[in-house]
Amino acid sequence: MRGHYIHQIWQADPTIYAPPRYRRACEYDAFVPSPITDIDLALPGDVIGVVSDAEKLIADLNRAAGPELMPLARLLLRTESIASSKVEGMQLDARSLARAEARRDMGRGAGPGAVEILANIDAMQLSIEHAAGLPRVLPQHLLDIHQVLLERAPNSQIAGRFRSSQNWIGGNDFNPCGAAFVPPPPDHLARLLDDLTAFVNEVTLPPLIQAAIAHAQFETIHPFEDGNGRTGRALVQIVLRRRGLAPAFVPPISIVLARDKDRYLRGLTLFREDRLAEWIELFAAAAAEAAALAARYAHRVGELQESWRDRLRQHANPRADAAAWSLITALPAHPVISIPVAVAASRRTRPAIANALEQLEAAGVLISVTESARNRLWEARGLLDLIVGLDAGRSP
């Protein structure tokens, strides 16, 4: 066991609105994990082989990254964020979400479900671009990610705050007695989070092993009232970026984890049972599958962009420096696009972008998805079909 249990008494509360059996005092055991700094780790050769193969696939995925592929990097980051939300039961199809994102970027309403998932994308972006570049990761940086994640959620009052009360997983909504898992009491959080972030700042273990252990420890600590899973999966990407394994392309590990959520949760239990090799093998195998899937989709997106360029050549064949060509490069990051977003993405003037969008629509690269002449939106032909497949973890 990687830790110990503390026997606790849940105090009776006759004032709560609940069946009588939940108002009574009861007993439960909270789990306090062992520290992970200076963890003693001995892995069998076959597990080390799985880790090595996964890290090579992630490195190969990133080796292909160049400035022209940065929009694809955002697509993979977006897909990882959506899949991380899906693990928590937050469902919205890729096409609806892309349109909601475009409406939000224009200052229009996106719908409450879409807003929360889009916040997960923002939090993942923050974790990778900000926390990953810091000299040291501190508990405050976890709060920053959580703040972005939940600041627009229905329970936004808890955003950016570590919990001050006991939480639990499973069981009933009124007390932790009979819960499937009870994390450590709140007075243990500061010590455990200091240990966790100190471990994240180390460079002794292979990056993927470090990410697997940090993630499982975070989920065991469960430091927030809500949003633990999504914040913990953002922590994975922080580790991979900080260690230089994934400097550009995020392997969308959450896609694989979301596809078999029960297996993922069993893996976290294996970690708590000190069966580290089994958890690390499961995590590394998911990372390898995610990297291979991302590489195949990167190739398919490249083929799709070439087909768009062929359409544009056949229709208008604009000058080599025309805005339409730069928009084709930018489209993977913005599967549904508006004039303001296109201007920001391409750094071209509004008249040049308006002309480019007209050319791309006439060439069949873009499809108008709004009827009004104002606040128009265009969808990139074929791209969302690919994204739907990637979100579902299907091979292209």
Q: Going across the major beta sheet, what is the strand order?
A: 3-5-4
What is the radius of gyration computed over CA atoms, rounded to a whole number of angstroms? Answer: 23 Å
Q: If helices are DSSP runs of H or I spanning 4 or more residues, what is the number of helices? A: 15
CATH class descriptor name of the largest domain: Mainly Alpha
The CATH architecture of the largest domain can be named as: Orthogonal Bundle
CATH homologous superfamily placement of the largest domain? Fido-like domain
Count of the separate structural domains: 2
* Helix-strand makeup class: mainly alpha
Task: Provide the fold topology.
Blueprint: E1 3-10, E2 26-33, H1 45-63, H2 70-87, H3 94-105, H4 112-129, H5 139-150, H6 189-200, H7 207-221, H8 228-242, H9 253-259, H10 261-272, H11 276-315, H12 323-330, E3 336-337, H13 339-346, H14 350-362, E4 366-368, E5 378-380, H15 383-391
Antiparallel strand pairs: 1-2, 3-5, 4-5
Please tell me about this protein's structure.
The relative contact order is 0.14. This protein has a three-stranded antiparallel beta sheet with strand order 3-5-4. It is built from 15 helices and five strands. The longest helix has 40 residues, at 276-315. It folds into two domains: 3-294, Fic-like fold, CATH 1.10.3290.10; 299-391, Winged helix-like DNA-binding domain superfamily/Winged helix DNA-binding domain (Arc Repressor Mutant, subunit A), CATH 1.10.10. With 396 residues, it is mainly α. Helices cover 55% and strands 6% of the residues. Helix 6 (189-200) runs antiparallel to helix 7. The two termini are 41 Å apart.
